[in-house]
Every structure is written in structure tokens, then in C-alpha cells.
Design a protein that fits this description.
Number of strands: 0
Strand content: under 5%
């Protein structure tokens, strides 16, 4: 019966819970009218990342029983799934409904506010995001993880998002927020990465390297961090170190357009146009679905570089090309 499934769910034995729910479906043709059953089934689907099925089950709960006792949790799970699907308006709607509900749930009101702030941020509503983050930070009794995450996002907002131009005053405002974030929760690799980017933008090279190293120690195989380390090495005129960092980035994430672009720039600067061409072509291929973050040039600029390199390669003066860096095929095999 329904109690057996719920027992497995409470014990977090999701495999047994799923078997019990499937058995219940077989034995009870009108299972879709049972809100408690659908709620449990939705949570099991959610656990297994079967979000399409979880969404259907949890929406049905709200439809058949608008006053369901765990309505708050239903709204939170729906919001998380809609956020995961990039349906930001639906996610905001359900997080706001959860925020108005005072019954207990898996997220605290401050955690819900953080999600709302982050949704505003990814939608480009930076003023609303900033206000929400500042509301959280001025609240009483903010748990350290929530405080650290909020400081990180607010710092990154100042660093990169409020206007498109690099403004040293904004970056200087971002730095103490990001520093406080890593002091509050030193285990978060993303915060160290953002701090490294902030130092790098101010040309604080040693501090940037140290922050990136902390990020790598905490984030397993993070392509963004390795790409940023490559940029730093390139600015320091250490081409071999830059090459190894970029190769590391594209080995972790072969779709990392910023790393391919920067690798192309590095090869071009080192007078290896054939290798640069390979990298630029790869970057263009990937640039159709970019999210706007990173160091890459727009597609038109990359296409212009490829045309210039083609002319270079076709001219006789470049037939004997000296390679100061390993060619792309060799570089890929570097330890």
C-alpha cells in the first residue's frame, strides 16, 4: 500500500520506493487521483533526475489538491526543475509561491531568496538580482554557505554583469565581496575562480594564480579555470605554459570555445598559422551556441582571422614554418 512506498521514501531507499510505486500503479487504476501517491512518485522521479515525469506528477498534485499539505515542497521542486530547463519565468513563479508559504520545506526562505536572485541574474535583471542579494546579506542569522554563495554572486555581478564595459572601480568593489565569500566558505571552488578572475582583471598576477590554484584543488576538472590560467600565462609571455593550460581546458571540455579561440591566438602570435587555423575553425564550429562568457572574439572576427591566415599560408614566404610550440596534434598528447 501507499504506506510501504512512503516508508521506503522516508528511508531514502529510492530503488525500493520506485518498485513499490510501480506496483501501486498496476494495482490501482485511479492512482492519478491520489495526491499523496503522486507527491511521493514525483520525489522519486526527481531523485533520479527524471524531471519530465517528476514535473508531470507534481503538477498533478497541485491540480487535484490545491491545498495539499506539502504544497510548499511541490513548488520548490517544480521551481528547481524549471530552472534546470531554463524556463526562468515558471521557476520564478514557483519560487515566489514557495516564499509566501510558511510551512516547512527542504529550502529555507533565505535559500529560496538566493534562487530568486540568481534567476534574476541569469535573466539579465541585474538591479533586481543585486537588491535580492543585498536583502539576504542584511538579514539575521544567514547560514555561512548561503552567505558565501550570495557574496560570490554579488561580487561577480559587480565584476562582470552590471555594465558591459570593464570598470576598475566596479572590479575593486567586487574584490572584498569575493574575498569575504572565500573566507566564509573556503571549500567553494567557483568562488575562488571568480576571485582569480577579479585579480586577473586588476593585473594582480600572483594573487590570481593563487586563487586559480585554490579553485583547481576544489573544482574537479574545471575547464573555465584552466582557460583563465592560460590567459594569465599568455599575458606573462609564457607561451608553453599557456599552451598546456589551454590544452588542459579543451581536454576537460572539448566544447570550450573560449579555450579554442585563445589557443588559436597563441599559435598565431607564435607564427604558427596552420595550427591557429585549426583552433579558430573549431571555435567557430562551437560558437553557434555560446552564452557570452569568456574571452573569445565574435564569429565575424574569427572568420576574418581565418581569411588572413589563409592568405599567409598561400604566400611562399611561409612555406618553411618554424614551430616554437608543439603543433596542435602533438600538444594534444602532452602529459
Amino acid at each position: 500500500g501507499i504506506n510501504a512506498e512512503y516508508g521506503h521514501l522516508l528511508l531514502e531507499d529510492y530503488d525500493k520506493a520506485m518498485s513499490a510505486y510501480q506496483e501501486y500503479i498496476t494495482l490501482h487504476p485511479e492512482h492519478w487521483k491520489n495526491a499523496a501517491f503522486l507527491y511521493g512518485l514525483g520525489l522519486v522521479y526527481f531523485h533520479f533526475n527524471a524531471f519530465q515525469w517528476a514535473t508531470k506528477a507534481l503538477q498533478q498534485v497541485l491540480y487535484i489538491d490545491p491545498g495539499f499539505s506539502r504544497k510548499n515542497e511541490v513548488n520548490i521542486r517544480l521551481a528547481i526543475m524549471f530552472k534546470n530547463k531554463n524556463d526562468f519565468n515558471a521557476a520564478l513563479k514557483h519560487f515566489h509561491l514557495a516564499l509566501m508559504d510558511t510551512s516547512t520545506s527542504s529550502l529555507s526562505p533565505l535559500e529560496i531568496r538566493f534562487h530568486i536572485g540568481h534567476l534574476y541574474e541569469v535573466q539579465g535583471k541585474f538591479t533586481l538580482a543585486k537588491e535580492m542579494y543585498e536583502t539576504i546579506l542584511s538579514s539575521e542569522g544567514v547560514p555561512s554557505k548561503v552567505r558565501a554563495s550570495t557574496l560570490r554572486q554579488l561580487g561577480w555581478l559587480y565584476h562582470s554583469s552590471i555594465t558591459s564595459t570593464i570598470d576598475i572601480h566596479r572590479i575593486q568593489k567586487a574584490e572584498p565581496l569575493l574575498l569575504e565569500s572565500v573566507q566564509t566558505d573556503p571549500s567553494n571552488g567557483q568562488s575562488w575562480y571568480f576571485l582569480g578572475r577579479c585579480y586577473s582583471a586588476q593585473n594582480k598576477v600572483n594573487e590570481a594564480f593563487l586563487a586559480y590554484r585554490q579553485s583547481i584543488d576544489r573544482l574537479d576538472r574545471n575547464a573555465d579555470t584552466w582557460c583563465s590560467i592560460g590567459v594569465l600565462y599568455q599575458h606573462q609571455h609564457q607561451p608553453m605554459d599557456a599552451l598546456q593550460a589551454y590544452i588542459c581546458a579543451v581536454q576537460i571540455d572539448s566544447q570550450h570555445s573560449a579555450a579554442w579561440t585563445n589557443l588559436g591566438i597563441l599559435y598565431e602570435q607564435n607564427l604558427q598559422p596552420a595550427d591557429a587555423m585549426v583552433c579558430y575553425k573549431k571555435a567557430i564550429e562551437l560558437s553557434r551556441n555560446l552564452d557570452g562568457e569568456g574571452y573569445f572574439d565574435p564569429i565575424a572576427k574569427l572568420q576574418a582571422r581565418i581569411k588572413a591566415i589563409s592568405r599567409q599560408l598561400n604566400s611562399k614566404s611561409n612555406t618553411a614554418q618554424h614551430s616554437s610550440l608543439p603543433q596542435i596534434q602533438e600538444a594534444w598528447r602532452l602529459p
